[in-house]
Amino acid sequence: MARVGVVGASGYTGGELLRVLATHPDVEVTYASSREYAGKPISSVHPNLRGYYTNLKFSNVSVDEMLKRCDLIFVNTPSKVSVDITPQLLESGVRVIDLSPDFRLKNPEDYLTWYGFEHPAPDLLQKAVYGLPELHREEIRKAQLVASPGCNSTAALLSLIPAVAGGFVELDRIVVDVKVGSSEAGIKPSLGTHHPERANVMRPYEADGHRHVAEVEQELKNLLGGREVKIALVPHAVGSVRGALATSHVWLTKNITEQEVWRMYAQRYAKEPFIRIVRGAPFRYPDPKYVIGSNYTDVGFAVEGRISRAALMAAIDNLMKGAAGQAVQAMNIMLGIDERNGLNTPPLRPA
Amino acid sequence: MARVGVVGASGYTGGELLRVLATHPDVEVTYASSREYAGKPISSVHPNLRGYYTNLKFSNVSVDEMLKRCDLIFVNTPSKVSVDITPQLLESGVRVIDLSPDFRLKNPEDYLTWYGFEHPAPDLLQKAVYGLPELHREEIRKAQLVASPGCNSTAALLSLIPAVAGGFVELDRIVVDVKVGSSEAGIKPSLGTHHPERANVMRPYEADGHRHVAEVEQELKNLLGGREVKIALVPHAVGSVRGALATSHVWLTKNITEQEVWRMYAQRYAKEPFIRIVRGAPFRYPDPKYVIGSNYTDVGFAVEGRISRAALMAAIDNLMKGAAGQAVQAMNIMLGIDERNGLNTPPLRPA
Amino acid sequence: MARVGVVGASGYTGGELLRVLATHPDVEVTYASSREYAGKPISSVHPNLRGYYTNLKFSNVSVDEMLKRCDLIFVNTPSKVSVDITPQLLESGVRVIDLSPDFRLKNPEDYLTWYGFEHPAPDLLQKAVYGLPELHREEIRKAQLVASPGCNSTAALLSLIPAVAGGFVELDRIVVDVKVGSSEAGIKPSLGTHHPERANVMRPYEADGHRHVAEVEQELKNLLGGREVKIALVPHAVGSVRGALATSHVWLTKNITEQEVWRMYAQRYAKEPFIRIVRGAPFRYPDPKYVIGSNYTDVGFAVEGRISRAALMAAIDNLMKGAAGQAVQAMNIMLGIDERNGLNTPPLRPA
Amino acid sequence: MARVGVVGASGYTGGELLRVLATHPDVEVTYASSREYAGKPISSVHPNLRGYYTNLKFSNVSVDEMLKRCDLIFVNTPSKVSVDITPQLLESGVRVIDLSPDFRLKNPEDYLTWYGFEHPAPDLLQKAVYGLPELHREEIRKAQLVASPGCNSTAALLSLIPAVAGGFVELDRIVVDVKVGSSEAGIKPSLGTHHPERANVMRPYEADGHRHVAEVEQELKNLLGGREVKIALVPHAVGSVRGALATSHVWLTKNITEQEVWRMYAQRYAKEPFIRIVRGAPFRYPDPKYVIGSNYTDVGFAVEGRISRAALMAAIDNLMKGAAGQAVQAMNIMLGIDERNGLNTPPLRPA
To answer: Are the Cβ atoms of A191 and C194 closer than 8 angstroms?
Structure first.
């Protein structure tokens, strides 16, 4: 049993890591950090976990103590906090999966542009592996530091990869319209997440440039060997609690049928354990509703020949494939065990 | 008091017409048709209207009888039904507001292409006025036949008109991503609208070409004096009951700031009684949530200079500005009364 | 036009008062108070009211200044704040409708028991009129101080009054199980109202004795000329934004049919402009869903002869008949105008 | 591996059985019946199960064929269908878990009273074991026929058992107010489950006597050795998809503190693997929200000494502990394996 720690365990992503790891056959959670709740039982913050982790309490220990207890650590902190902790952890040789954006971008200048701070450890950016198994499985296997992708980015990338790699879309006119549930905003209340205000919304936000664009453009450019890609991405809060859907609207550079698109996606994702291609009635297009609670990405598409355009769609559970599930998938790869361990429960339906 | 009839009064749009007209100061509803519920009180189908229309029952009478009772008739039937009824009504001289798509398109061939039937009264297509007051107020005033716009079309057009007229967007790369509530599908149950399946969805539909595209392209082309416009429109069902949001993603043909966009929108819509421009925190972008129950369209925008693109947004209540409210607005114009009569209740909040 | 002020105008009940009063034909809002938002436009806090109140800003003035501007004042503050302001207002002769609980109870000791403070103005408690028109219409007409009922209390009382007055229920075994939407908790965010936590709940709260019990027991006892009534009331938060349903479970003291219950309710409420009796398929029992946005109370009942018990139900919009609407109804009575003025818009459906 | 069949596999409970059994370590699903979908892949009806059961299709075979394929059969049909199939299955010696109400009641006359039909196999009623492990674990172990409880009944019983057994509540004044999500109504669409009508409801139904009362009264009477118990039960549809909460309102026959109630519940349920007792802030009372996707029942209580009454609450996922999960728990007991096998995934949160 690998001993794993979760730094930042009291929020939704932390809680989801604990939920998934609670029944994982190959690991044991030996540390769950929280400054605010140190000393309290896990279930006092995560009522779904009543009856689990009865021998573990939230705590808040030194890096040294953390290293004694853990073989692998999930760092699940806000941006600009991980950059302080993670370098210390790495020095000791422990393996780290960072769920914050702090090590996702390769170019240090991008942190200034997109996140507004100068990155204090630019050399680590080269060392970090972007934790999308569908792009970097082999590098993840050997990585000491995995930078787990954002939820919007995961959905955007998985909708686009086969099309961009396939060379049939205009690279400078890609629109990614994202819809997300409220859990994406985390556990901290605000007016915007207050139920009466948040219920039933169709609310665009960060419409003039969302930070996740940086990693999507980076990874697609990398996929193309350096060719630039422009992404116009606008996320929209909708009334669900869980789920994220990316609808990527693309303009075609050549005639292509839905059948041909299907072939390219099927081929690209043939061996992916967590990608399912959706096609045919009665559930014709991907909908996050049917992946809730699981690590799956449902992918689908529509082609409108009349005006040479397509809609490429990817649906995920933002807390699973968009956060905790994907991090555990990376962990499984790093540990050399079956990628699906701890992640094989089917999605809920209806939910 | 004008005497008005509602053909097709037992569904959601019919019910919304009855709701709005119940307290309208200048009209009286003298006819509410339903084959299925003929003889039953209005409130047996529309429980919100208990205590209203206590002297009116659903009925189903001949066209002649209808004409005796009514000065103006809302025809609110499915596509291909209105084409049978409306010509007869028009012959008698009564004024008609048709809420179906049967008279929205000018080119008879478009009915074959988009709706799959040969239009039996192509000459009436020229006579009909597309009932968007923001484009055709003066023609509506004199019209005998108004073809009231679809809900997706209304949101799409109102988001785009000032930008397209302003000449700063690429006309062949316009993406309109629409989110709509469940009431848009009407009152008839199906698996897709069954609550357990419909709750919490983020579900694309008709992603390879929605019929409303035809009227959006027609009206924008007309606005530009005949220049072609391509619209890639994908609607998405989300978890709300009411509301529609169009996010129009456009690529800019010149440098333009949000301030300049604001000026163009403010100017274009300056005298519109039902358009409100949204700008500035804390409710920065339009959200249908804040127009529920009203005839308003909230319009807003975001510009991302980095890649020369903008998001242009319009939020409506799909049953009001997207259907019944807009039809009543047209009626007010036709009757020469204040356009806001019967439509001045502020939106609900929270809702 | 009467000039009215709203003390506490930035929350949900304050916003709802402004919404209703915006189109009220007989009054003008001349004052809307907010400490936090003083100087800001109404629509910066209430985005639904964009385009309304364009000449009014939130402000925060002295009592003297308030009295100059207003003929009648809605005091809409948290408990223990109104007791400080209201006495000063009353001294000047202005009429006050207090939406807080501070003047609802007649017995000063009840404030110690249920609210935990010693009431500083016990003499005013006798002067105050409990603002439920269905019980105290004539006293409201002449009142200087109306204490507007709580939302749970309104639903509980209106479900029970005819049955308790009719003498067919056990008075010491009444259970009132209430379901309420999230708007009932007000505009201030907390973990309990955070959308991911509040969506989809079925959450009992204050299950060991809710404060509203005090006013329900007081009014029923008063109705019975002093006979004691025991109320076991448990509210439950459910997933809606608006609405409150009281299901009063009672044990019968004699054989009675649904038909007889109907007659007693119909008789008691015959002249009530805002009570509708629900009976018969397909919408057999009251549901707040069909009163949303209106001041109506839908009342209904079921009798189970087998075990001599009945369920008596009342459905309201908690922000309307449960708060702002009821206060405006009281205002109309006080002003001697039609009770329905400003309150005649039918409920939304679907919503 | 035991070979199990699911008769009635295309609805929500059937789908939930397939979901749970998909990763169950000790059984294999060898038969999934559906008349309507015979020949179609499982995922064409249950899109969450894409990628599972790739070698199984819906089919509809004779009882003989069924018996060849299966060691144990879940019969998941509407009332009055199981009474036709189950006797044949039992004759062959196969073990059956019936999820319909057809074998829950011991007294054949109760079927006439509550279900409106004469039971054709009254002798089997004595043979059947009521499948609530918390009451009948040992009998389930040896049973050939288990009659799995209804969802309302499960919540009602688990909230009441320790109190009724403990002898501190009035047995003829028990009110059970139930709240349930929409999945409880099954997969067949109707106006009442149409999303626009079903969203945001607080809708009482079968308020004059719900069928599940029969089994609740039977089991409590049995628990008391034959003493009669009266249950006034009213279910309410609320806006969630999953979940059921029973709030049992009881009047106390003696002074008892929450601490004492806690002791009785803790003792009674000490060894129950799927009952969790909820107590203490910040999640003070049970809420189905925190058991979603799991087989847990969260139980809690509040005592109001002032009027000698208590609220006893039990929260379940209606498709799990209220249907499929409980049936699998019974199967585990029948197979002599760990009761938690296949059921150990923690609930989702937030959901």
So the answer is: no
pLDDT tens-digit map of D73-100: 999 999 999 999 999 999 999 999 999 9
DSSP per-residue codes, D210-258: -THHHHHHHHHHHHTTS----EEEEEEEES-SS-EEEEEEEEBSS---H
Residue B59: the pLDDT is 97
Question: Given this model, what pLDDT does residue B2 score?
Answer: 97
Do C317 and C294 meet the contact criterion of CB atoms below 8 Å apart? yes
Facing B15 at nearest CB: one of C19, C276, C349: C349
Q: Which residues pair with A250 in a beta bridge?
A: A310
Residues of chain D with pLDDT under 50: none
Q: Are C21 and C29 in contact (CB under 8 A)?
A: yes
Structural domain that includes position B233: 152-316
C-alpha–C-alpha distance, residues A51 and A62, integer Å: 28
**Is C72 part of a structural domain of the chain?**
yes
Pair C163, C215 in one domain: yes
Q: Is B347 a member of any domain?
A: no
* D161, D259: one domain: yes
Round to whole Å and give the CA distance between C159 and C181: 18
As a whole number of angstroms, the distance between CA A17 and CA B322 comes to: 43
- Residue A280 shares a structural domain with residue A205: yes
Query: Is B318 annotated among the ligand-binding residues?
Result: yes
Q: Are residues C35 and C144 in the same domain?
A: yes
Cα separation, B261 vs A84, in Å, equals 42
Residues A174 and A34 in one domain: no
Taking contacts as CB-CB distances below 8 angstroms, the residues of chain D near C278 are: none
Q: Which amino acid is at D54?
A: T
ipTM of the complex, rounded to two decimals = 0.97
Please tell me if residue B49 touches chain C, with a CB cutoff of 8 Å: yes
| From A151, A238, A314, A320, the catalytic residue | A151
Quick: pLDDT tens for A212-242.
Answer: 999 999 999 999 999 999 999 999 999 999 9
Give A309 to chain B, closest Cα distance, Å: 7
Looking at the partner chain, which of B287, B288, B309 has a beta carbon nearest the beta carbon of A232?
B309
Residue D208 lies in a domain: yes
Closest partner residue to B182 (CB to CB) among D182, D189, D195 is D195
The enclosing domain of B201 has a CATH number of 3.30.360.10
Mean pLDDT to the nearest integer, C36-43: 97
Under a CB-based contact definition with an 8 Å cutoff, are residues C140 and C330 in contact? yes
Over 80: is that where the pLDDT of C59 sits? Answer: yes
Phi, psi of C74 (to 5 degrees): -85, 120
Number of helices and strands in chain C (H, E) = 12, 13
Give per-residue pLDDT as tens, C84-112: 999 999 999 999 999 999 999 999 999 99
Nearest to D148 by CA among D103, D116, D114: D103
- Number of domains present in the structure of chain D: 2
Average the pLDDT over C152-163 and give the result.
Answer: 98
Residue-wise pLDDT for C174-212, tens only, equals 999 999 999 999 999 999 999 999 999 999 999 999 999
Residue D55 near chain A (CB below 8 Å): no
What whole-number distance in Å separates Cα of residue D1 and Cα of residue C346? 61
Asked whether the predicted pLDDT for residue A281 surpasses 80, the reply is no
The β-bridge relationship of strands D297-304 and D309-316 is antiparallel
Answer yes or no: are the C-beta atoms of C160 and C174 closer than 8 Å. Answer: yes
Q: Do D81 and D131 have their domain in common? A: yes
DSSP state, B150? Answer: P
Q: Return the percent helix, strand and coil in chain B, to nearest 5.
A: 35, 20, 40
Same domain, D89 and D165: no
Cα Dmax for chain A:
63
C70 is annotated as an active-site residue: no
Average pLDDT over residues B251-276: 97
B281 touches chain A (CB under 8 A): no
pLDDT in tens, A100-126: 999 999 999 999 999 999 999 999 999
One domain for residues A158 and A289: yes
